[in-house]
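seq/struct pair 1
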Amino acid sequence: MTSSPAVVEGTSGANGDGQDLPDILRDVADGILTITLNRPQAGNAITADQIESIIAWLDEASADVTIRAVVLGATGRFFCTGADLRASGPAPVRPEGAPDKLVGDLRRVMLRGAIRLISAILDCEKPVIAAVSGTAAGIGAHLAFACDLVVASEKATFIEVFARRGLAVDGLGTWLLPRLVGLARARELVLLAEDIPAARAAEIGLITRVVPAEEVDATVADLARRLADGPTRAHGANKWLLNRSLDTDRGGLSQDEAWIVEVLSNTVDSAEGVASFVERRPTRFRGF
């Protein structure tokens, strides 16, 4: 999706096909950070190491003034089929007689892993676009839903797979779904755990738009370019206000909005926006 050579990071040999290839790619070009899951033979099931990489890169993107938009994609025919349940770290040291599984262990893993990952996308100060060309299931679906814009191939499918495995929804799914589609539809998605084709996902408001498979990259590149050329500070502030809007009362949001408007009125891009309007010329936002 970008023209420059990718700077690759990740765990070698973990891409699912036995080859010594990076399992996640990072590419920065023309103000756009592209993060690509690269374990196609493993359905791009996400590992703990990949989670840490994505969180770190999103945090860096928030602070890096040269990065003005983020794209999250994947190689192969899957976007992300969920967490890699085969991957596990070393067993913790236990005193004699203690069970292998203690109450609180899994909770800690979830808070440090999937929940932290989804929060990192929501909290990133730059707009994040998901490019979904295949199946997005479980935490993989939530990776997409947490993004600000979701462009999906007409062949893509979204699955709240947890009930099929007898599991509770994780990765902030019960926070995301009601906000995207309402409580009644969220119940349907979670309880029935059906495959949701991309066209249906767009119809009910889960994703932004659906395009033919061969147009995904071009569509995402166009949107990323438009966002990267936009008022970056305003995008970050508006993203924060929108994410907060359903968690606060009208009075609280009124104060947040008023203060944000005042703060942004002092940015270089705000001055440029007004000047370009008065001078009747194209706006040239700089991102600060």
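seq/struct pair 2
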Amino acid sequence: MSAIILDQTIVHYEAMGRGRPIVFLHSWVGSWRYWIAAMQVASTSFRAYALDLFGYGDTAHDSSRYSLEQQASLVTRFLDEMGIGKIAIVGHGLGALVGLQFATRRPGNVDRIMAVNLPPDFNSINAKLRTSTAIELADWLSSRTPESVTALSDASKVDTGAIAASMNSFQSDRLFTQFRATDIPCLLVYGQNDPSITVPPVETLRATSLLSIHMHQINLEGSGHFPMIDETAKFNRLLIDFLALDSGLSPRELELKEEWKRRVR
């Protein structure tokens, strides 16, 4: 286990590989652990980091640090302390929101973002996700395969207050408007069968000006809340294709594999 002290608090992270840095940020359930397969694939060309956010996994529990802004500050302080410059971000749910928050504050430090099962607004989040414990959420959202059980084994470590605090800060945030102004390439990936997030029709996002020319959406038909677990091989192929794009290119330039072409938006 690797850890770093930031502002007198312990932050747990794991790293593997060599090359350009990529940072994986987890959702409201679990920890860094369910990124292992994606990190292994990315590590052939990248230095892959996965963090436990405040209140999750083996990072400190501190109720004053659970807002999206404070979680983004964790990412900022971690990168500065480790001497890491421009990064790619892969964020899931909460981690996607934190990634966007970080990008609006430090756009020069972000090359691209893959945002997985990102709620487009507060009302798209199922009330059960806002009110249940992490253990209850893991039971609800998991496919209950042996791989899923292992990947989400840190759900018992989650401080439920961290879930509620992030929801409250998201409810009062103008995150998407601020992020669009950065023009950072962003690939939105949704598990079509996620019961916790209402998957947005792309036409709705465009009508509300939430999608820019630097953003693109792909829905994976066989996935729920955890595409990286439900369809590991497909998710990892998509990840590698996205990371292989030249810097600055819109993810609309992806040469998509046949198995997900039908769900491209």
